[in-house]
């Protein structure tokens, strides 16, 4: 495929796609978009895992194009170690999420090709209400508390006065 560029000739700019110099043109002003990609955003394609890094997996879509599946796009569940889910040489079905026009980078997703699991509804354990007792601690009015505080304070003061008199 040949890149399409609409421009006026003046200087030479190499266009690099997937680590290969695709085309060199003389341009005055970049007007068009380099269209070497045959993969459209949203399309689902087969690929082969060619490399694994801690942040994701590289997937070869064909002999000339390769994309990256980020670790967050591998599964609907939390992925702690990508090696538990993928290995080099695995054939995977991926969805094209993004194709950067300038650099030609392809973002892929495995989890977008899978049905989302139904959310688990977690029921919270019900709290048991304490029995209503007159002795139970709980909400007391400030007036009731004040009476208790004053009584405690008077008792302490009386004990201190007894000690001083001895």
Structure overview:
- The protein has about 170 residues and is an alpha+beta fold.
- Among the domains are: about 1-35, no CATH class; about 40-115, OB fold (Dihydrolipoamide Acetyltransferase, E2P).
- About 15% of the residues lie in helices and about 30% in strands.
- The protein has one helix and seven strands; from the N terminus they run E-E-E-E-E-E-E-H.
- It has one helix at about 140-165; strands at about 10-15, 20-25, 45-55, 55-60, 65-70, 90-100, 105-110.
- The strands form two sheets. A five-stranded mixed beta barrel has the order 3-4-5-7-6. The chain has a two-stranded antiparallel sheet with strand order 1-2.
- A hairpin with a 2-residue loop joins strand 1 and strand 2 (about 20-25).
Query: Largest beta sheet, briefly?
Result: 5 strands, mixed, barrel
The CATH architecture classification of the domain at 39-113 is Beta Barrel
Give the tally of β-strands: 7
Shape type: rod-shaped
Task: Summarize, please.
The protein has 166 residues and is of the alpha+beta class. It is built from 1 helix and 7 strands, in the order βββββββα.
Topology:
Blueprint lengths: L10 E7 L2 E8 L16 E10 L2 E5 L5 E5 L20 E9 L6 E4 L32 H24 L1
Parallel strand pairs: 5-7
Antiparallel strand pairs: 1-2, 3-4, 3-6, 4-5, 6-7
Could you list some keywords that capture this structure?
about 170 residues; alpha+beta; OB fold (Dihydrolipoamide Acetyltransferase, E2P); five-stranded mixed beta barrel; two-stranded antiparallel ribbon; 1 helix; 7 strands
